[in-house]
Structure formats: structure tokens, C-alpha cells
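Explain this record to help learners:
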Amino acid sequence: MAELSYEQARAELASVVERLEQGGGTLEESLALWERGEELALTCQRWLDGARARLEQARAARAEE
């Protein structure tokens, strides 16, 4: 499966949070949603960490000029 973009992961995470907040599902459904939310949060964090590293590299390269 292809990795989601940051925007896709963030949108799906928001949907998962909304569904969890609404409640009404079974415990098993809630646990599955929670686990999916954790995966999505990690995906978002990887994207953000990568973006931060790219910015730091660009700043370092600019400082060397």
C-alpha cells in the first residue's frame, strides 16, 4: 500500500477522532479506530519530521554560502 500524503493522513486522522468522539460503536470498533488513529498520527509525524529536516538542511546550506 502506498504511503498517504501528509494531507491525506491528517484528514483521515481528523475523521477517526470525530468518530471516536461520537461514540456509539462497540469496544472492538473503538479499539480498531484508536489503532488506526495511532498509525495515522505516526504517518503525520514522519512527514513533519522530514519537512523539519529539509528546512534545517536548507538553512545550513544557506549559512555556508
The chain has a mean pLDDT of 95. Helices lie at 6-22, 27-64.
